Amino acid sequence: MKIAIHGRKYNDESIPFIKELFDELNKRGATIIISHVFSGIIKSSKYKFGKFKVYMTKADLADANFVISLGGDGTLLEAVTHVGDLETPILGVNLGRLGFLATTPKDRIKYAIEAIYNDYYKIEERDLIKLVSDKDIFDGLNFALNEVTILKKDTSSMIVVHTYIDGEYLNSYWADGLIVSTPTGSTGYSLSCGGPLVLPQSKNLIITPVSPHNLNVRPMIVSNESVISFEIEGRSKNFLVSLDSRSYTVDASIQLAVRKEDFCAKLVKLDAYNFLDTLRQKLNWGLDVRN
Question: Beta strands 90-94 and 104-105: pairing type?
Answer without folding.
Answer: parallel
